[in-house]
Design a protein that fits this description.
The complex is a heterodimer of chains A (282) and B (487). With 282 residues, chain A is of the alpha/beta class. Chain A contains eleven helices and eleven strands. The chains are: A alpha/beta (282), B alpha/beta (487).
């Protein structure tokens, strides 16, 4: 833990002004790292059980955000949260984690390396004193800080039920915009995000749309737009991840040629095999 | 008076020659057995005494000492009953002194003086042929030992029959060619699962290890059973090898002698010794009983981790070595390993219709029970999902090949692999295939072992098409069946 420890008091200089304006700001913010980096950013949250699709869209938007100088704020959980932090770090941008335990506690354990990097280079925050062990209720409470620190919330992938909803509620309470990445109507992991969209969250399908929604049209960014594939197998898989049997049946080809095409496309990186045996673009 | 009769004791699958020496001398009536006998051999005293009397012989009313030479070797089993009885009969002059020269005698005696079968009759038969002896044993064992070429077998039903001299050697008849193994599950009975069926054919042709993952009730067990039906009958050498292990383990070797491929499906409560062999005296485990056949491990993560880790070396080398204080025993264990597992404790991770109720960590923990090194030894991993009820209940014929056709394809590919093409893996790669493989190995950061496994599967895919060279399409298809690297 190389970063500097700091404590920000509500009403004192240094306390993030955007957070102070929310309905229920934390009295104190404990942190490790560089407190001057806590600027208004983009909160990116999503499911822990993320699909390759969710991880891929997280990476797309997080690296864009970091690239245009918008801090990526998230909760350091495994899945989408962790991917958002990692993508921002890889893009050389600022990323801030808000934890549901003390800012010096490595939780989840698998994110320990990433948290250490952030404590040294950016900032890790919590409203709980240093050394507080993780507790279930604390993670729900910290969601309001994630939402409050950001100027907008992007939900990348959420199933049902999902903790992401509490972050979305907090964002609405604080008057922040809520954006959502639409998912397949057949994917259980996208049911939550699609429901958010129906409830009024703004769908975002590309970085230029996100930039526009954030009012950042003037900002130059690398053209990291979604690439659309052209051959029939990749197209079918992009629409909906399929098992080899279903793919062969859908395209009317025999299983051997389906397996050959899948093997070749996977090794070239055009498609990925999900842990559940389906193939998809991710 | 003294006499000696040859017999043998089992060490692994070998019958080690033992000489049974009997000494009958005047003195207080005792009957002692020396030469490291175990309890079963000690009990031979009572059986021999009763059997001799029943058969109308006389048990000497004097001092009888039986020595089993070489004395330092541990002897076990009830097969010593017959040679002990014979040695006593020769030493007391009730049978001619040299009646059993060049004969190895093995068999258990009942109190009614009938000669009964003991485990390992095949091992004794092979040992007798190697030493150039005839084998005198239970008449019931005739059809088992007749699998051993060159054996002169004297079948004895009852101890009293020896009064007419040594029983005649029955000619060992050449058995009819083995019938094709009746499959328990036919491919045509399985609806859907096309890619899994294709994998089974590849696994059968190349002897590759397969892991089937999927939710409960999706058909993993059924597919594994169908694999056993795709393999051709055992050939001459394999028949003897597999039958020998069954015989030593005290199981019926007749199905193996008939050419039926072993299919063993031990329950997951199986211990390390049960799976790879062990105990005192050492006994072959399930992997050896499945030698030349299929070892099916259902619910793989439920097996004790120690048992799974013990599988690693035998699965790689095809032989189990059990090292004990008094020497090492080797059992063969070349199997096609088929294992099945649920993707997570609740079984529904990745199921399109039911969501998984496991905690995130629980899924990883469940999968890590198997251990990366064993995962690495799976040549192919296939996801088996529950199929559409509509497809299951449709009236049309099942898709894909029938067991009959697949069996022919497998036999053809195996024949091609043996003498239709040059041996060697790397040399048969076509330039395109090499590029495909290099690209894939680099992008997936495959280990050397993973590349070799992929290459072996690709070789089998080429064999299935009788292609001398491995083409890029074969590499591509092998990639689709690749096991996940432990990441």
């Amino acid at each position: 833990m190389n970063g500097e420890r700091f404590v920000l008091e509500l009403g004192q200089p240094g306390y993030p002004p955007q957070l102070a304006d929310t309905p229920d700001p934390p009295r104190r913010l404990y942190g490790i790292g560089d407190s001057s980096l806590i600027a208004s950013g983009l909160a990116i949250v999503g499911a822990r059980k993320a699909t390759p699709y969710g991880l891929r869209s997280t990476r797309l938007f997080a690296s864009w955000s970091a690239g245009v100088g918008l801090a990526v704020i998230s909760g350091a959980a495994i899945g989408c949260d962790g991917e958002a932090h990692r993508a921002a770090i890889d893009a050389g941008g600022v990323t801030i984690a808000v934890l549901g335990c003390g800012a010096d506690v490595d939780y989840p354990r698998r994110s320990a390396g990433m948290l250490a990097h952030m404590r040294e280079n950016t900032a890790v925050l919590s409203e709980l004193p240093f050394g507080t062990p993780p507790a279930r209720w604390a993670f729900v409470r910290r969601n309001r800080i994630i939402a409050g620190l950001a100027r907008a919330l992007l939900v990348v992938e959420a199933g049902l039920p999902s903790g992401t909803f509490s972050t979305a509620d907090a964002a609405l309470d604080a008057g922040r915009d809520v954006f959502v990445v639409p998912g397949s109507i057949f994917s259980p992991e996208s049911r939550g995000s699609n429901r958010l969209m129906r409830q009024g969250a703004v769908p975002v399908t590309d970085v230029s749309e996100l930039a526009e929604a954030l009012g950042m049209t003037g900002v130059h960014h690398r053209a990291a737009n979604v690439q659309i594939e052209c051959d029939s197998v990749t197209r079918a898989l992009a629409a909906d991840p399929l098992r080899p049997d279903d793919l062969a049946r859908a395209l009317g080809i025999d299983i051997v040629s389906a397996a050959r095409t899948l093997g070749r496309l996977e090794s070239s990186g055009a498609i990925v095999r999900y842990a559940d045996g389906r193939y998809g673009v991710g | 008076m003294q006499a000696a009769v040859t017999t043998a004791t089992l060490h692994g699958v070998d019958a080690v020659r033992v000489e049974v020496q009997a000494d009958v001398s005047p003195g207080l009536p005792v009957f002692g057995i020396v030469g490291l006998p175990d309890i079963a051999v000690q009990e031979a005293r009572d059986r021999v005494r009763a059997a001799l009397r029943t058969a109308g012989y006389e048990f000497p009313n004097s001092r009888v000492i039986v020595n089993l030479a070489p004395a330092p070797l541990r002897k076990h089993g009830t097969g010593f009953d017959l040679p002990i009885a014979l040695a006593v009969l020769c030493a007391t002059g009730q049978l001619p002194a040299r009646a059993f020269d060049c004969v190895a005698a093995v068999g258990e005696l009942g109190l009614d003086a009938r000669v009964r079968e003991v485990p390992g009759m095949l091992a004794h038969a092979i040992g007798a042929v190697t030493r150039g002896d005839a084998l005198l044993g239970p008449a019931d064992a005739h059809d088992v030992v007749s699998a051993v070429p060159g054996l002169s077998f004297r079948g004895l039903e009852h101890l009293a029959a020896l009064r007419q001299g040594l029983p005649a050697a029955r000619a060992i008849t050449e058995g009819a060619p083995p019938p094709a193994c009746p499959a328990q599950v036919m491919l045509e009975d399985i609806a859907g699962h096309d890619i899994a069926k294709r994998c089974l054919i590849v696994a059968a042709a190349g002897g590759h290890h397969v892991l089937l993952t999927g939710p409960p009730g999706s058909g993993k067990t059924m597919l594994a059973r169908a694999l056993a039906g795709l393999l051709p009958p055992l050939d001459e050498r394999e028949r003897l090898e597999s039958a020998l292990i069954h015989s030593v383990a005290g199981l019926d070797p007749r199905p193996c002698i008939e050419g039926r491929r072993p299919f063993r499906a031990p329950h997951h409560s199986c211990t390390v010794a049960g799976l790879v062999g062990g105990g005192t005296p050492p006994r072959p485990g399930e992997i050896s009983l499945a030698h030349n056949g299929v070892l099916f491990l259902d619910e793989l993560p439920e097996f004790p981790p120690a048992a799974l880790q013990a599988l690693r070396q035998p699965v790689e080398e095809g032989v189990v070595t059990l090292v004990r204080a008094n020497g090492a025993v080797r059992y063969p264990g070349r199997v096609t390993l088929v294992s099945a597992m649920n993707p997570c404790p609740c079984g529904f991770a990745g199921d399109p219709h039911r969501s998984c109720t496991c905690a995130t960590g629980a899924v990883t923990r469940y999968q890590s029970r198997i251990g990366g090194p064993l995962f690495d030894r799976m040549d192919m991993t296939i996801r088996v999902d529950r199929i559409d009820p509509e497809l299951l209940l449709s009236d049309g014929p099942a898709t894909g090949v029938s067991t009959e056709a697949a069996r022919a394809i497998v036999a053809d590919a195996q024949a091609f692999a043996v003498d239709g093409r040059p041996q060697g893996l790397r040399s048969s790669l076509s330039p395109d295939a090499r590029i495909e493989l290099q690209g894939a190995a680099r992008s997936a950061r495959m280990s050397g072992r993973a590349v070799t496994r992929l290459l072996r599967v690709a070789r089998t895919l080429a064999d299935l098409e009788r292609s001398t060279r491995i083409q890029d399409v074969h590499v591509a298809e092998a990639l689709a069946y690749r096991s996940w690297e432990s990441s």
